[in-house]
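pls design
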């Protein structure tokens, strides 16, 4: 029996991870959950799931019995490192996941990681935490899980390239001029996946794929030159690995995140899953296109940041997180998201990221630069 902590249990991934735990009462028992701002759904989860520990960002307004309720950042890091926990599902969104990730890895946990921002920003620190502790990282992101599974079939030095698939988001076929006035509501309508709002927006701008290029590089230790992106609107092939003999291994399934979540938790074993089986005969048309970098500059910027290293990936991510907040608040236009990221990267003086403080400083700088961009735009 593995004891599981789900960090970010109220989110899209967190709720699906709970479903996986419920599906396998013989394998998993829920030890802890955490959430940030959704108090009512969090209280409902405590009531329904009865975890041993529940961590919220502030004191809850209602008393809860039977569960040890804690609050604040330190309580979150402690839950990630709790000696009773075997598997941490990291389903928090944004760079806020970095400290709990480091905490869990240093304590030797298996981390089923959905969060990509922490890997993009904390690459070297995560690597070090893996080296010093007994922790292990198992990818949950469907594309990274697909790569992980395809890589299990060959030797590393036989790999020619990793091929990340991308749905292309809801605006894949729209001319760029039409993207200017996209509203948050339109941006959140993802064609194939149902996800949290930040990642849905990132899929529409292709920032998500940019983050995934960097995430794949961090997870599997391949340079950008060996990572390719292919647009595949049906989201049936989740990613592929091309080997040097010309063989391409692909990972296919229905678009259901419970599958990669579960595999990260049960690896190296495969268990029956709540996901519907894939009926390929009902999906006769699987198509693939090379992405147009000029239409989606977010992708090119990610490759450039990966190559530049240092604080550039942190700024790419931090600027994007801030721009997303401003877009949802109606203070930035859709195309201004990538423009503000580019603005921040142009002004950032790149330097090595030696520790968490350096990363958080670069993240803060990126956010301030986006605010500056927004003010200059609005004053025009
Ligand atoms: N959704 C998907 O299908 C999918 C697929 C692949 C990868 N991912 C990655 O998985 C992560 C989670 O995505 P999601 O779609 O599940 O996001 P989401 O629905 O927005 O959920 C985010 C979760 O994180 C918590 N949270 C937010 N800010 C926090 C903070 N500052 N400190 C602690 N907890 C915080 C939220 O709590 P409250 O709700 O209480 O605020 C919520 O439980 C992201 O990094 C995303 O890129 C998601």
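designed seq:
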């Amino acid at each position: 029996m593995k004891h599981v902590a789900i960090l970010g249990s109220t989110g899209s991934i967190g709720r699906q991870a709970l479903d996986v735990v419920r599906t396998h009462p013989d394998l998993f028992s829920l030890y802890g959950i955490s959430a940030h701002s959704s108090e009512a759904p969090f209280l409902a989860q405590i009531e329904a799931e009865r975890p041993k520990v529940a961590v919220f960002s502030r004191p809850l307004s209602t008393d809860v019995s039977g569960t040890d309720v804690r609050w604040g950042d330190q309580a979150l890091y402690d839950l990630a490192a709790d000696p009773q926990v075997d598997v941490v599902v990291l389903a928090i969104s944004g760079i806020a996941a970095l400290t709990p990730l480091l905490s869990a890895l240093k304590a030797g946990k298996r981390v089923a990681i959905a969060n990509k921002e922490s890997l993009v920003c904390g690459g070297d620190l995560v690597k070090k935490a893996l080296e010093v502790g007994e922790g292990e990282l198992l990818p949950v992101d469907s594309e990274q899980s697909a790569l992980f599974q395809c890589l299990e079939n060959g030797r590393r030095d036989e790999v020619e390239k990793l091929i990340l698939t991308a749905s292309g988001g809801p605006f894949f076929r729209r001319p760029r001029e039409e993207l200017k006035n996209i509203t948050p509501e339109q941006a959140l309508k993802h064609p194939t996946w149902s996800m949290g709002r930040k990642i849905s927006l990132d899929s529409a701008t292709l920032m998500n794929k940019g983050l995934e290029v960097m995430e794949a590089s961090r997870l599997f230790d391949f340079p950008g030159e060996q990572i390719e992106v292919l647009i595949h609107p049906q989201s049936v092939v989740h990613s592929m690995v091309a080997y040097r003999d010309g063989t391409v291994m692909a990972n296919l399934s229905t678009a259901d995140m419970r599958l990669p979540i579960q595999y990260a938790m049960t690896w190296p074993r495969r268990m029956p899953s709540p996901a519907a089986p894939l009926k390929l005969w009902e999906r006769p048309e699987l198509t693939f296109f090379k992405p147009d970098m000029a239409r989606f500059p977010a992708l090119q910027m990610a490759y450039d940041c990966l190559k530049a290293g240092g604080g550039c990936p942190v700024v790419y991510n931090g600027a994007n997180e801030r721009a997303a907040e401003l877009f949802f608040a109606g203070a930035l236009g859709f195309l201004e998201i990538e423009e503000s990221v580019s603005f921040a990267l142009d002004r950032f003086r790149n330097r090595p990221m030696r520790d968490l403080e350096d990363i958080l400083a670069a993240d803060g700088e990126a956010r301030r630069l986006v605010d500056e961009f927004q003010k200059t735009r609005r004053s025009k």
